[in-house]
Specification:
Structural class: alpha+beta
Strand content: 15-25%
Strand order of the largest sheet: 4-3-5-2-1-6-7
Number of helices: 14
Radius of gyration: 29 Å
Helix content: 25-40%
Number of strands: 16
Shape: elongated
CATH architecture of the largest domain: 2-Layer Sandwich
Bound molecules: adenosine-5'-triphosphate, magnesium ion
CATH superfamily of the largest domain: Histidine kinase-like ATPase, C-terminal domain
Largest sheet: 7 strands, mixed
Order of helices and strands: HHEEHHEEHEHHHEEEEEEEEHHEHEEHHH
Distance between the termini: 116 Å
């Protein structure tokens, strides 16, 4: 055989490409992808360190005839737009972000979100460099989508001052919404769903002051925190952190500030340490600060992995686990290609699960030990404990003298640093007094007049609190029930 001048065309058709690209992504995830880009933009402005997130804002509008997202996160440099940003897929030589913990890795998120939503879009951006402002826009039109060829997209310059953006940032405006999309955007339930997804997924950034608004309402973060006492011998969460090469895994498992779980016998209104009663029980998994999973209580995170860990049930609603993976190379994170789910088959995840279960075990035993004791008995131990997010909790616990730290070299010759703290082994958890018989709570109702009558008889006052009256009645009967008294009577 020898080559001829004939060739067989082997490029994807646009229609096929667009339908494949958008098929498996949910509309809300496509929107989260666009927010990821804003955060990556802010991170690039941080020059390798953590930026001051409180300076950044994203405004999203979901309307029945358009979608828009606007940020002040630095914009897209013109060179990046020309060579990378509008390509479908990242070039292997694109190592722009090798020094930052950005989450962008495939080079599709922005385009996929636009195609998912509608048929006409304009990406307008302003990036400033060396004191020079540069605003331009890139339209993606229905005509371009329908054309058979893959012509490059135009870059349009502003002709009037008012067409320029006021600050460095990016604005994406999508019209000709696809039918299902317009319906979703007009539906308040969908807007709520997106808001919840954002408050969970970007909880860390929102805590750090990053602002996200949807249709004018700012999104509040969920709380994922564990209680830590500042005392060296006070109760603290289980902690494990390992840095190996450029990947850091941090784990903490502890008590949250939730009220006692539903269906618990010892119903008691007070929270641990009297803290606010907001909590996220179960496991939260963070990857480069994005919460990939929030409050998982399934087999995925080890619950029900018998015999070590029982299935989740309300007794464990006070337990919160947080695990975080950080890597400059986002491909090393155990996330699926959508970045909203865990890649549970990854070696890194399976290895971490062993430590997660070790941490869960501590608190499963703890809640078992305290199962038949009123919560108020534990409260004094937890009084000074503060709810802290993962990094602060680890910092606080790692500073204790009893925390174990070690450095080693792995097989590949890389440094491995670990920090470990097991509150059970270190004896910092309160134990119920063994001698004390376990208690049961008695609750019953009687007509007000009857309670007042008994109160008057016992205390010569009809208005003593009903609980005290009931308690006194019980004490009288108890005296009678004691064997010695019985004999006498
Ligand atoms: N809001 C934004 N601010 C700054 N730069 C942006 C913004 N949106 C997109 N970009 C630029 O456009 C590029 C392409 O974005 P896109 O989401 O398509 O891919 P990616 O983020 O590189 O990878 P992934 O597909 O994993 O998200 C980004 O790498 C970034 O340089
Ligand atoms: Mg992206």
């Amino acid at each position: 055989m020898k080559p001829s001048t004939d060739t067989a065309t082997a490029v994807p058709t646009k229609q096929f490409f667009v339908s494949m690209l958008t098929r498996d992504i949910k509309l809300e995830d496509a929107i989260l992808d666009l927010i990821d880009n804003c955060l990556d933009g802010a991170l690039r402005l941080g020059n390798g360190g953590k930026p001051d997130y409180s300076r950044y804002l994203v405004k999203i509008t979901l309307a029945k005839d358009h979608f828009s997202i606007e940020d002040n996160c630095g914009g897209i440099p013109r060179e990046v737009a020309k060579n990378y940003a509008f390509k479908m897929g990242r070039e292997p030589n694109d190592n722009r972000d090798s020094d930052t913990e950005t989450i962008g890795m495939y080079g599709v998120g922005m385009k996929r979100a636009i195609f998912k939503m509608g048929r006409n879009a304009i990406v307008k951006t302003r990036h400033d460099k060396d004191g020079n402002q540069d605003t331009y826009e890139v339209p993606i039109t229905a005509a371009w989508l329908d054309a058979a060829n893959w012509d490059p997209l135009p870059i349009n310059e502003p002709t009037e001052a008012k067409e320029k953006l006021n600050a460095p940032g990016t604005r994406i405006y999508v019209t000709d919404l696809n039918e299902g999309v317009a319906r979703h955007f007009a539906n308040p339930a969908f807007v709520n769903e997106v808001t919840t997804a954002i408050s969970q997924h970007f909880t860390m950034f929102l805590h750090w002051g990053f602002k996200i608004e949807i249709n004018g309402e700012s999104v509040k973060p969920v709380h994922v925190e564990v209680l830590v006492s500042p005392r060296e011998d006070g109760p603290a969460p289980y902690v494990f952190r390992k840095t190996s090469g450029d990947v850091t895994v941090s784990i903490t498992v502890g008590l949250n500030t939730s009220r006692r779980a539903e269906g618990d016998d010892n119903e008691d209104d007070a929270d641990f340490a009297g803290q606010r009663a907001s909590a996220t029980a179960g496991w939260t998994v963070l990857c480069n600060d994005r919460a990939v999973i929030v409050g998982d209580k399934s087999r995925l995170t080890g619950w029900g992995d018998l015999p070590l860990v029982p299935l989740y049930h309300p007794q464990f609603a006070v337990i919160t686990g947080i695990i975080e993976f950080r890597a400059k190379d986002a491909k090393k994170l155990p996330v699926t290609t959508t970045k909203r789910a865990l890649d549970a088959s990854s070696e890194l995840w399976l290895e971490s699960l062993v430590k997660m279960k070790e941490g869960m075990r501590v608190w499963i035993s703890y809640t078992n030990d305290w199962k038949n004791h009123p919560r108020s008995d534990q409260q004094s131990y937890w009084q000074d404990a503060q709810p802290l997010p993962l990094s602060k909790a680890i910092e606080a616990v790692a500073a204790r003298k009893t925390a174990k730290t070690s450095s080693a070299i792995d097989e590949a010759g890389g440094d491995v640093e670990t920090v470990e703290f097991n509150p059970k082994k270190n004896n910092v958890l309160p134990k119920p007094e063994e001698k004390k018989p376990s208690s049961k709570r008695i609750v019953f109702s009687r007509p007000v007049e009857e309670v007042r009558a008994v109160s008057k008889m016992l205390f010569d006052d009809p208005d003593v609190n009903a609980g005290t009256v009931g308690d006194e009645c019980f004490k009288i009967q108890l005296e009678l029930a004691k064997p010695s008294k019985k004999r006498r009577s």
